């Protein structure tokens, strides 16, 4: 997979040189290229922003440098057309984008070429989105309902979430199956040695070697923990995916199945 990131702070992306993503880059599993947007300016101040038309606070990123940078990455001249299947996917971190999820990360991990545009200030001139659509599939995305100073933090999170799903990046692929959100639930609690620490013991069920019972218990823990911390995920579950034990666990956690949906049950 090739990943290009455009930013006015390329040094911000140095974290992509370490840990599993850095290792994957060195092993050529991921081809990550960082680009400085200011390399596509043509004035001595390397200007990338200007005041907004219509007034308002802050500055807006100019379309010219972005158009040049994105055209260079796409390997296309302005106005050239491409078949949708051959276009790279341009991801623009934005509070106005669709929320990035584990399901989206898995979908994007199957793409051949991703490009990230790190906006700053009040954002990127809207015409850049229109221009980029000539060369890219354009997709604004958001980490959540809050605002960051720029897109770099979001890109670091998304590249890691996507990159670790590329085959070979994570050493044990089974670890990707049982983690949070892989099945719409939060991950179950985990424990390691020593079995007793500071007066706190590892649950006995994990020590008895009964793997079928352990699997059932962990599933119940997932449902209970998700019900407590993320009831929205419980309500989004497909009732057909829930067996009798699951439904009993959810009942005790305050949920029931009604009219083909998982809903909060009455307190009584």
Automatic annotation (TrEMBL):
Origin superkingdom: Bacteria
CDD domains, alphabetized: TrmD-like
GO cellular component, one term: cytosol
InterPro entries xrefs: Alpha/beta_knot_MTases, tRNA_m1G_MeTrfase_C_sf, tRNA_m1G_MeTrfase_TrmD, tRNA_m1G_MTases_N, tRNA_MeTrfase_TRMD/TRM10
GO biological process: tRNA N1-guanine methylation
Residues noted as binding S-adenosyl-L-methionine in the record, renumbered to the chain: 119, 143-148
Protein's cellular compartments: Cytoplasm
Database matches in SUPFAM superfamilies: alpha/beta knot (SSF75217)
Its EC number(s): 2.1.1.228
Enzyme class, first EC level, given as a word: transferase
This protein's UniProt keywords: Cytoplasm, Methyltransferase, S-adenosyl-L-methionine, Transferase, tRNA processing
GO MF annotations, alphabetized: tRNA (guanine(37)-N1)-methyltransferase activity
Catalytic reactions of this protein: guanosine(37) in tRNA + S-adenosyl-L-methionine = N(1)-methylguanosine(37) in tRNA + S-adenosyl-L-homocysteine + H(+)
Protein name per the record: tRNA (guanine-N(1)-)-methyltransferase
């Amino acid at each position: 997979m090739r990943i290009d990131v455009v930013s006015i702070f390329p040094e911000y992306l140095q974290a992509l040189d370490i840990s599993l993503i850095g290792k994957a880059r060195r092993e050529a599993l991921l081809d990550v290229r960082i680009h400085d947007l200011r390399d596509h300016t043509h004035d001595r101040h390397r200007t990338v922003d200007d005041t907004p038309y219509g007034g308002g606070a802050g500055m807006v990123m100019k379309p010219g440098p972005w158009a040049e940078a994105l055209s260079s990455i796409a390997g296309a001249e302005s106005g050239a057309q491409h078949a949708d299947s051959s276009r790279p996917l341009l991801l623009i971190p934005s509070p106005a984008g669709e929320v990035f999820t584990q399901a989206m990360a898995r979908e994007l991990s199957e793409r051949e070429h991703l490009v990230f545009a790190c906006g700053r200030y009040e954002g990127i001139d809207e015409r850049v989105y229109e221009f980029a659509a000539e060369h890219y599939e354009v997709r604004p995305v958001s980490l959540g309902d809050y605002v960051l100073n720029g897109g770099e933090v979001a890109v670091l999170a998304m590249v890691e979430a996507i990159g670790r799903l590329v085959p070979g990046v994570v050493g044990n692929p089974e670890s990707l199956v049982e983690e949070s959100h892989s099945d719409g639930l939060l991950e179950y609690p985990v424990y390691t040695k020593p079995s007793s620490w500071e007066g706190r013991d590892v649950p006995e069920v994990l020590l008895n070697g009964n793997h079928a019972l352990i699997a059932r218990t962990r599933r119940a823990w997932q449902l209970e923990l998700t019900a407590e911390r993320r009831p929205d995920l419980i309500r989004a579950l497909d009732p057909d995916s829930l067996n009798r034990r699951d439904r009993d666990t959810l009942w005790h956690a305050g949920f029931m199945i009604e009219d083909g949906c998982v809903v909060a049950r009455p307190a009584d």
